[in-house]
Structure formats: structure tokens, C-alpha cells
Amino acid sequence: MGPCAVNSEFGWLICGSGKAKTPGRDEIVANFVAERNEALSSNLIFKNEHEDLNEVLSKFWKTDSIGIRDDADMMKEEFLKDIRYKEDESRYEVSLPWKEGCRIESNGYSQCVKRLDHVFSRLKGEPELLKEYDNVIKEQLHAGIIERVVDSNLDDAHYLPHHGVTRHDKQTTKLRVVFDGSAKHGEGSLSINECLEKGPNLVPHLFDTIISFRGYPIGIASDVEKAFHQISINPTDRRKLRFLWYDDVTKTSPQIVHYQFCRLVFGLTPSPAILSSLLEYHFESHAVDDPETVSILKDFFYVDDLITGAWDDSGAIEIYEKSNKIMNDGGFNLRKWTSNSTIFQDRVTNDEKMQAGGANDTPESTDENNMNDRKTLSERQCSTETEQGCVKVLGMTWNVKTDQFEYDFSKLRVYEVFTSNKTISA
After folding, report:
1. What is the pLDDT of residue 424?
2. Is residue 307 packed enough to be buried (19+ CB in 10 Å), middle (13-18) or exposed (0-12)?
3. What is the band of 40 on the pLDDT scale with cuts at 50, 70, 90?
4. Which residue has the higher pLDDT, 65 or 416?
5. How confident is the model at residue 30 (pLDDT cuts 50, 70, 90)?
6. How far apart are CA 57 and CA 54, in angstroms?
7. Domain check: are 148 and 13 in the same one?
8. Domain limits for position 135
9. Smallest Cα–Cα separation from 135: which of 374, 370, 373?
């Protein structure tokens, strides 16, 4: 029996088994349609005669998601007012959104020294990881993301502890240095995150993003290279973003060096909202010149990932060209372009090879993370992770050859059912 329509109290429902495409596999479809219709009014559903079904259901969903949903308009206009574009660096600069009257009492220096010693002791047991950790900080210093503090005066300063997180399933980064903005330095003291406004939630629903992405025959995925680190921080706030490291990790007793961030830190509560708000601000500045591309960027950005699509190859390449231009104007570089279109892939690969050829004329870092960043699309798709044409899209595996999402259940743990006898014998 195929799907059937049922006229319920909530409107027409379509439910039941669809025609199976493969033996032993059913497809279930259920849709809900609500209309503003006074004939549907019932005392069992509505609280009063002025409230219709949509309003009741809307209130129900909002109540059900208290503490989960944020009102995007709550602080949208007030959150990030101090935005400047630095012509000399071709990037935006913002001030941290401090809560009024909130103050960090402790500079956190002594606790950061202890945590640094603990991190260093662990890393010395893994020399390769220690080298990579040190390289990350050196690369950030070279790129201007951080700067060395000449005057280590602790007045009105704040230090962030940090640790390393390794990810073996990432294409571009094996190790990430994470800064702890929630660390409290002393009883009754406030963390820096508690003194900063969280900001509005401008991130779209993940489900909506995926559904929109799958609505196009040609899928396109990309992300912003080191998105948070492309946003400059007002010099007056940089003293609050200090941290400690060593001058030479190969020494038996290296000297502590003071650094501070010049760019936005991943680890602060408002960082996602600052990024989203700034991207929206940047998109609006190009709305008059290219409204169509701006609309795509506004609708299909998920934090720092662009997940969109096109109806044909020419449309996909147009999105690629125009979105690259708009993002570059704000100091943001879209990278790791991926698509199920071979024509699109060939175009991106050719562009990346040309860029890589130009990069060979300049001194290169030997850092493995940056070398991975410079891999072309074809090289990335020949790596171990993507040898079957699979890439990660918002945490899910997308096979660009078959244009399907794939799920690996082989690593699911099988739990044994314990009987009383097995428990006693154990």
C-alpha cells in the first residue's frame, strides 16, 4: 500500500510506505501543513477564540526550545558597533564586547605559569607533538596573528591558559592550540568569558542548511581559512588576550615569553557571534553591487563554512568567482573548494595549481599544517581520508563521486547484554 492522505486536527498528513527503490527498503514520508482557517478552530486546541493553530504551535515549539534557541534580533544592532576596516592590512578590526560594569579581578598570570608547566611536561614525552605545538605558535607570530610583548607589565593585563587538541580526521590541521577563555583565576573571580557579551546567535539551523544544500543538482562546499584569525582586535583590548610560551623548546630550561593576540581568539564566548556579525556587515556592504551573490552568502554560510549549490556548471563557477572576490575584499580567503561537478573541480584545481606555482617563488614554511593547506583539490581528494571521493561537509561524509552522504557504522561499539550469571562470574 502506498502513502495515503489523512485529514487530521492539524491539517492534511501524508504518511505511509513509499515505493521501495531497492528490495527490503521502505521510504516513509510525513508532511505537516497548517493553514489559517477559522473552520479548524476547536476548544480542544485553542486557548481562546483569538488564537489560531499556528500561534499555538509556534508557542509550543518556542517553549520546548527554551535555553536552546537565541533571539537573533535581541542584540543584533547593539552587539558589534565598533567595526573599522583597516586599509593597510585589508581586514576588519573590532573591539571586544565587554559587559558594562564587569571587571576581571585577576590577571591569571600565576595560574597560567602552572598550567604552562603542566602542558610542557606532557608534550616533552611526545617530541613530535611538542615540535608541532611550537610551530603553530611560530606560524601565528610570523602571520601577525600574535605579537611578542616587550613590556611584560601585568597591570590591566589578563593571561589565557592553553592546551593542545589533536584531530586525526581533519584535512588541514592535526593539532589545534586551544585557549581557555572560561578559566577562573581564584575563588570568586570572573573569567574573561563571563565579562564578555555572548552576542546574538546568527548561525542557521544545521538541518535547514543541509536540506538547502541538497536541493541543488550541483553541490558546492568551501570554508574560510582561519576565519577567526582574519579579524583584527582593537589594540586597547589586546592586553586582555595574553598568553605564555617558551623561547626555545629544545632547551633543558627554556625561558618564558609573553605573547598577546592581535586577532580574534577561538575560545572566547562571543567569537562565533563576532564572526557572523562581521560577515553579515561585510555582505551588506556589497549588496548593491552584487545582490545575487550576497544573498547566497548570507543564506548559505554556516559559521565559517559556505555550503551551497547551483543548477548547472556555469552557475557553480560563477558563485566560485564572485564569492571569492567578495570574501577577499574583507580579508577572508575561501579554501578547500569541493563539488560533485567535475567541471567545477577542474576549474578549482587549475586555479590552485597556478597559485601554488606563484607561491613557489617565495620562501615557504616547512610547517606540515601550512603544507596541507597548500594542497590542490585533486591532491586532497587523493589523500587517505578522501581516496574514495569522500569529503567532510559540516561533520558529515559527502561522497562527491556518487553525490551521497555516507555513514560509517563499523566503529559503533557493540554492547554485550549481561545476565546475572555473567555479572557474578565477572
Report:
1. 59
2. buried
3. very low
4. 416
5. very low
6. 5
7. no
8. 109-406
9. 370
Q: Is the pLDDT reported for residue 298 higher than 90?
A: yes
Residues in contact with 102: Cβ distance below 8 Å, sequence separation at least 6, in sequence order: 190, 194, 195
pLDDT tens digit sequence for 366-391: 454 554 554 545 444 434 444 568 88
Residues 343 and 195 in one domain: yes
Per-residue confidence (pLDDT) for residue 293, from 0 to 100:
96
Residue ranges with strand state E in 140-229: 146-148, 162-166, 175-179, 218-224
What pLDDT, on the 0 to 100 scale, is given for residue 101? 87
**Domain co-membership, 169 together with 271:** yes
**Per the structure, how many domains does the chain have?**
2
Cβ(257)–Cβ(244) below 8 Å? yes
Task: Answer yes or no: is 418 within a domain.
Answer: no
Predicted confidence (pLDDT) per residue in 66-84, tens digit: 444 445 555 666 788 789 9
The pLDDT score that the predictor gives to residue 365 is 46
Is residue 76 in some structural domain?
Answer: no
CATH number, position 202: 3.10.10.10
Nearest-CA neighbor of 170 among 375, 402, 400? 375
Ramachandran category for residue 201: left, alpha or beta (phi over 0 → left; psi -120 to 50 → alpha): beta
Residues 276 and 196 reside in one and the same domain: yes
Task: Identify residue 89 by its one-letter amino acid code.
Answer: E
Helices (H) and strands (E) in the chain, counts: 12, 18
Residues 114 and 55 in one domain: no
The whole-number pLDDT of residue 155 equals: 86
Question: Do residue 222 and residue 160 come from a single domain?
Answer: yes
Same domain, 29 and 177: no
Domain limit, last residue, from 28, 46, 64: 64
242 and 158 in contact (C-beta within 8 Å)? yes
Helix (H, G, I), strand (E, B) or coil at 15: strand
Q: Nearest Cα to 397, choosing from 176, 171, 204, 174?
A: 171
Spell out where 190-333 has E strands. Answer: 218-224, 232-233, 242-246, 256-261, 301-302, 305-310
The mean pLDDT value for 111-140 works out to: 94
Q: How does the average pLDDT of the chain come out, rounded?
A: 81
Say yes or no: 122 and 209 in one domain. yes
Q: Is 22 helix (H, G, I), strand (E, B) or coil?
A: coil
